[in-house]
Amino acid sequence: MVTSQLPDVGPDAPLYWQEACRHLMKRDRVMKKLIPQHAGASLQSRGDAFVTLARSIVGQQISVKAAQSVWDRFEKLPRKMTPAYVLKLKVDDMRAAGLSARKVEYLVDLALHFANDQVHVDKWAEMDDEAIIAELVAIRGIGRWTAEMFLIFHLMRPNVLPLDDIGLQNGISRAYFSGEPVSRSEIREVAASWAPYCSVATWYIWRSLDPLPVSY
């Protein structure tokens, strides 16, 4: 019985996590081996929506270490990390914290979208994934990949398949195609048996490359 091999999950795991593991181990030979290797760990949400998206903008195209350093300096500028306080900041102060001119523009646009209710945070629970992605990519500096990471890590949506994610591509290449490069259609073929828990399978594919859980 596959159920006897189900890993323990932490108390902060999404409610669907155990059922997702059961489904994936039953349907997918790679998941059957991979999931038990990471008992006690699961996806976890962090921060509020605005802070999560601001961090993702700050971290674009720089190393994790550099991103944390810039974020630590930027975080000290506003009295509180909210859209209203970010909009009061001086551009020179934001640049001095290590932000590029473009990232300053992106953070201001993000703050404006939240301050002007151009994103419907209170309605996201009832909105489908694509509708939320459409709202988020309208913000400067946020592309589809960032929006998908937000769906997975902040909203904990169970069935997101980030086709453009390098880690997912590399992990599927190694686990299913003996290291050969994979196409988007091949990723979709593999993921057909994962639905409706593509986010969970993706999280375990990431673990196959790096045992330390990632968060955005």
UniProtKB/TrEMBL annotation:
Name under which the protein is recorded: DNA-3-methyladenine glycosylase II
Keywords: DNA damage, DNA repair, Glycosidase, Hydrolase
GO cellular component, one term: protein-DNA complex
Keyword DNA damage appears in the UniProt entry: yes
Enzyme class: hydrolase
GO-annotated molecular function: alkylated DNA binding; DNA-3-methyladenine glycosylase activity; DNA-7-methylguanine glycosylase activity
Entries under CDD domains matching the protein: ENDO3c (cd00056)
GO biological process, one term: DNA alkylation repair
Chemical reaction(s) catalysed: Hydrolysis of alkylated DNA, releasing 3-methyladenine, 3-methylguanine, 7-methylguanine and 7-methyladenine
Ranges where the HhH-GPD domain occurs: 58-210
SMART domains cross-referenced by the UniProt entry: ENDO3c
Family of the protein in this entry: Belongs to the alkylbase DNA glycosidase AlkA family.
Enzyme Commission identifier(s): 3.2.2.21
Lineage: Bacteria, Pseudomonadati, Pseudomonadota, Betaproteobacteria, Burkholderiales
